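STRUCTURE REQUEST FORM
Protein name: ATP synthase F(0) sector subunit c
Source organism: Longicatena caecimuris
Requested output: structure tokens
Priority: standard
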Amino acid sequence: MLNAFELLLPLILIVLISLPLVNVFRGKKSASVAKRRMITHVCFFFAILLGTVFFAATKAYAATQDDIALKMAGSIGQGLGFMAAALSTGLSALGAGIAVAAAAPAAIGAFSENEKNFGKSMIFVAMGEGVAIYGLLISIIMIFMKL
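Status: completed
Returned output:
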């Protein structure tokens, strides 16, 4: 569990980095000064981001092997269920992408020729999107059945 220091420190650092940019956004600084400040602050932001990730990684690495083994306990059936859920979501999204890639340009073409074709053509695009939603629902059902 994170304590108050670990929660507030990144927020304070981001505010301290962003505070000097207020004059830049108000237009009180020249373009060259603004460009240098933006580059400097972006570099500071990513440095703090990397520092936060490094801090979290060292804290997680300090956990003992027994704690990790207890947290990762699960059966082979549970792991295969999660893999099946991932495959159902991924493959249904891939199929929906292929369907929409074929139906959407045809729908736009039909609509550009005759405005009355809009409703008919959007039905086919929505059917392609429905495939992804059904795959996501199946994966959610699989995950809740395995937990």
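Reviewer notes: The mean pLDDT is 80. The chain is about 85% helix and 0% strand.
Form closed.
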